[in-house]
Each structure stands twice: as C-alpha cells, then as structure tokens.
Amino acid sequence: MTEGVTSAPVSRRGFMRAAVGAGTVAAATGTAAAQDGTTTTVDMNDQLKFDPETVTVAPGTTVVWDNVGQIEHSVTAYQDKIPDGADYFDSGGFDTEDAARSGYPQGAIGGGETYEHTFDVEGTYDYFCIPHESVGMLGTVQVQQGGAQAGGGGGGAGVPGSVTNLTILALSAMLFVFAFGFFFMKYGGDYGGGQLE
Question: Are strands 138-143 and 39-44 parallel, antiparallel or unpaired?
C-alpha cells in the first residue's frame, strides 16, 4: 500500500490534446529539418564518368561528388565556364584552373572519398576531371530557382537521407500515438477512482 502519493486522473480529452500536441511538434521538427538545405550526389566511377553528367539544382544546394570506384579523380571547374560572381571550385582548393592543373595530384579524390561544393549563384557551371578530361570525363551543374523541378533535368536526391529517416520516424511516432489514443479511448482509462489494496 502506498501512502501520501496521489495522482490526478487523466481524462481521454486531456490525453488526446497531449497526443495531438506531440504529433504537431514531431511534424514541425521534420519540416524544419527538410528546409535546412539539400544535397545532390554525383558519382565518379571507374568507367571515367560523372554520374549523372548533368544535375540541375536550386541555389544553396550542396553537390557532393562521391568516388564510388578505385581510380582517383578530380573535380575542377572550367574557370571561363562558370557564372560571373560565382566562387571558383576545385577539389584541390585552388583559386584558378591553371593552378589546379599544375598542382594536380593535389586534390585527387581516391576511392571512397568525397568532395563537396555549395552553389549559390544561378547559372551553368562546367567542370572536368583533370586526369580524365581527354577521355570525356566532363560534367555540368545547372543552378536555377526551383532546381530540378523547374528544369526537368537534374539528378540525385533532392532531400538528404537523414531528413527522410527523420520524417519516417516522426510519422511512425504519430501513428503510434494515435493508435494508442484510439485504444485508450475505446477501451477505457478512467477506472472510477477505485482504491487498490
């Protein structure tokens, strides 16, 4: 027997208010995470290709180049084929195309490694792999409002995997809360204040 401990009964309406509030918070958290920014992945493979060769993204998108093969590659922008006002990009961290070419193999991306760059200025960015340029390892990033939806091209995931997982988790939690609430409302929960001995 427990003495001195009292608990307020939980009404069905009170429980449902709490459940709906928790579900709303979970949904809002997933939405906020989805708006943090997007990532698009371009694979670099042993067939000496960027896959996909062309991606269309919205401003603020980060493109991640992932070497899924064993051969080393680079990601090097053609300096005269990027929009005015855009930052030059190169996997070696160079400021110019000439410096990147003469500095290679600095910036080589080995198998299983990645390089990323965030694109803020709208326009077309052409790039290449220094050691495989002559065999046609070329790519393009098209940056425009709306990203791939507006242009119809593009590739790669528009939403990071972590956001997808968070959304699934939030929806699963909401489903559990509503199922538990239904069970609680249908089969009771107010036991009439009976005393346990």
Answer: unpaired
**Class of domain 39-157 as given by CATH:** mainly beta
Q: What is the pLDDT of residues 141-184, one digit of tens each?
A: 999 998 875 334 444 445 556 677 788 888 888 888 888 878 77
Among residues 134, 121, 111, which one has the least CA distance to residue 44? 111
Closest CA to 117 of 145, 139, 149: 139
- Write down the H helix ranges in 11-93: 12-34
**pTM (global) more than 0.85:** no
Residue 92 neighbours by CB under 8 Å, 6+ apart:
74, 76, 100, 103, 104, 106, 107, 108
- Rounded CA-CA distance 130/89 in Å is 13
Q: Pairing between strand 50-51 and 39-44?
A: antiparallel
Distance CA 47, CA 89 (A): 23
